[in-house]
Structures are given as structure tokens and as C-alpha cells.
Specification:
The chain has ten helices and nine strands. It is α/β, with parallel strands linked by helices. It folds into two domains: 185 residues, Rossmann fold (3-Layer(aba) Sandwich); 72 residues, 2-Layer Sandwich (Histidine-containing Protein, Chain: A). Strands 2-3-1-4-5 form a five-stranded parallel β-sheet. Strands 6, 7, 8 and 9 form a four-stranded mixed β-sheet that branches. The longest helix is centred in the middle third of the chain and has 23 residues.
Length: 269
């Protein structure tokens, strides 16, 4: 049992591969759009979440903090969706959002530009020139997005366990190859994997709830959970915000203790 992430370019065949793997392994197939639909909440629409996951940083990045809030909400929902395991998640950089989950089978799907252009033409009913321009823009935006948020090159093959070229094999052949890798012992969850996935979900949900809570929405934290013991790394603007952080965090199911020792307090005047 494990979790597979598929990173794919627009119209590169990644969705078809994910669906094939889901059927072959008996895993649930989960898309970015499905997660965004479940993550949507009052004040956070599905469209805003998808924009936060696709649009590159602007020249001044005026909405950087808002992007932090939206991604925190999305990541919490994703962590909750995968915590039972047996999931194929396909997105442009799903493995980067699931840091802390180990092992993942991280798959990158590539395809010749001609094949991608043909798929875009068929789906969007546009000219070959327009299709090429569309693919180029999406790929550049995704590259900028991952560089901005995670400091990595989305296309770097070293970030993946398997790189599949759908110009050299069919989707079915690629599916059989990746399914075979998924069955290897090195990609199976061992030990108390349920607690590990639960901790990722707890930490992500605490971060998301703080991001959308009016009294703490201006703050940003790195949050980790170890068997329900939640640690915070960040800064507050007022000392009294610590009590609100505790209140929000303690309201998340599974939280058993809080460690705020690495939260920086405002400097005295």
C-alpha cells in the first residue's frame, strides 16, 4: 500500500495514466480540481484555490500572503484526502505539497510537443499555433510557481522516482510499468504509517485554520505534528495572539499538545 503522485504538464497524458493506475491497483484517483472543490469554504472559492496553485508570482507579488492562505487550505484538504492511503494524486507538483509523507512513489509524465498540441487542439478547438502558445504559457507558469514556492525546478528529473515518456510507450504500457514499481517493497508504507499520515493531516489543518481565522489570518507558520504534538515555527505581532493560536490549534481533532517555544515574540519598544 502506498501513495502515488503524478506530475504532468498540461495535456501530457498524466490524467489518463492516473486513471489507468487507479483501476489497475484499486486506488482512488484524485485530481487537483477535486481537492479544490472539497477545500472551498466561505471566503475561499474553488477558483481562488486553483489560481493559487497555477498562477505564477506577479512582479510585486502583492497577494503573496493571500496565496499562503489559499495554499494552506488546499494542502490541509489534500492531506486529509490521502491519509487513508491507496491514492493516485495527479497535479503539477503534488509531491511537493506532501513533504513529510514517506515513501511516495513520485512519477513525472512527459510527452512530445506534437502529441500535446494535438490533444489541446482536439479539446479546445484551436489552431496548432494557438495550442503551442497555450502549452508554453502553462508550462512556464508552473515552472515559476514551483520555483517561487519551493525553490526547485519542476522539470528536474531528480525530484521523481520514475519519469514516463508517453512518446515512447502507450498509456497502458506506462501504467503497467508504474504499477509494477508501486508493488515494490521500497515504495510500501512500513511501521506506523497511519500515524505518520494522520500527523501530516493534523499539522496541515492547524495551519489552514489559523490562516482563515480572522484573528490569526495575518500570521504565517511552519507547523509539524508528531503523534499529535504540534510544533510551530514563525512570528507573532502581539503577545496576546499566542492565546488565540492555542485556542484554534486545540480545536483541531487529534491535537494532544502544543509547542510554541520557537514562535518569535515582538521586540519590546
Amino acid at each position: 500500500m502506498n501513495i502515488i503522485t503524478i506530475s504532468r504538464g498540461s495535456f501530457g497524458g498524466g490524467t489518463m495514466l492516473a486513471e489507468c493506475l487507479g483501476a489497475a491497483l484499486g486506488y482512488r484517483c484524485l485530481s487537483r480540481e477535486a481537492v479544490a472543490e472539497k477545500a472551498a469554504a466561505p471566503g475561499v472559492s474553488q477558483e481562488q484555490l486553483l489560481d493559487a496553485l497555477s498562477k505564477p508570482p506577479g512582479f510585486l507579488e502583492r497577494f503573496r500572503h493571500q496565496r499562503y492562505q489559499f495554499i494552506a487550505v488546499f494542502q490541509a484538504t489534500l492531506a486529509e484526502e490521502i491519509k487513508a492511503g491507496k491514492v493516485v494524486y495527479h497535479c503539477n507538483a503534488g509531491h511537493l505539497m506532501l513533504q513529510g509523507v514517506s515513501p511516495l512513489l513520485k512519477v513525472r509524465v512527459i510527452a512530445p510537443i506534437e502529441k500535446r498540441v494535438a490533444m489541446v487542439q482536439e479539446r479546445l478547438k484551436i489552431s496548432p499555433k494557438e495550442a503551442r502558445a497555450y502549452i508554453h504559457k502553462v508550462d512556464v507558469d508552473r515552472k515559476k510557481w514551483t520555483r517561487f514556492l519551493y525553490g526547485v525546478n519542476w522539470a528536474d528529473s531528480a525530484l521523481y522516482d520514475v519519469v514516463v515518456n508517453l512518446g515512447l510507450m502507450s498509456v497502458q504500457e506506462a501504467c503497467e510499468m508504474v504499477a509494477g514499481a508501486a508493488r515494490q517493497k521500497c515504495f510500501e508504507f512500513v511501521g506506523d504509517w497511519r500515524t505518520q499520515l494522520q500527523d501530516v493531516a493534523i499539522g496541515s489543518r492547524v495551519r489552514a485554520n489559523l490562516a482563515i481565522n480572522p484573528a490569526t489570518s495575518h500570521l504565517e507558520f511552519e507547523i509539524t505534528s508528531r503523534q499529535g504534538r504540534v510544533s510551530f515555527l514563525g512570528r507573532v505581532t502581539r503577545v496576546d495572539e499566542l492565546e488565540e493560536i492555542k485556542r484554534v490549534a486545540q480545536g483541531v481533532p487529534g491535537v494532544v499538545a502544543l509547542d510554541l517555544s520557537e514562535v518569535l515574540l515582538p521586540s519590546p519598544l
